[in-house]
Amino acid sequence: MKIIDLDKLLPADIPEGERVLWYGRPEWVSLMRHAYRADLVAAYFGALAIWNAVVDSDAGAMAAAIAIGKSLVLAALCLALLGLLAWLSARTTLYVVTTRRIVMKVGIALPIFFNIPYSQIASAALRTFNDGTGEIPLALAPGRRIALLHLWPHARPFHIANPQPALRCIPDVGEVAQTLQQAMIAEAQIRLGVANVSAPVQTAAPAEQQTFPSGAVAA
Length: 219
Prior knowledge:
2 domains, four-stranded antiparallel beta sheet, alpha+beta, elongated, about 20% strand, 7 helices
């Protein structure tokens, strides 16, 4: 893992005694596919190229080839733009799991920090992808809300009314989920004075999702 200078990237208000357990960034190719939907864009232009070839086939093979070529060029330009956006988004994003909270630094042009204490998380879910990456959406406690416009693309897809911040397209997501759950349980034990709280996380199969409660709920 490339070393990141956290002192330059994190807010200056992390108190003494709070430890960083994990930090990382999205994997940009996975972010391009799963957040920016590059696979769907590629499939759309593939279907468009076939359609244009069929429509122009009556005009001859050359006309069909030109139609396919135009569609492929347009597809390449769109995918290149999505790739650039995904790379910039991954490059400027930082996810941090500490002993007390999750810190998300997001934003390409204007960095924004989101500090999410474990006491404000109702539950977290684990979803893995076939490429080895995955995401951890966070369901916030009632009364807590972050605008989707501020979060995207670092939000769980298709949850518009109640946006869920998410650690998206991160490598070794199973290990990160276990680290997060252990931290949430430990923090809840301290905050609530509850002992022997446990809720082990099982690694989900590719493209499946499992949910594990926060320490407060498990208690």
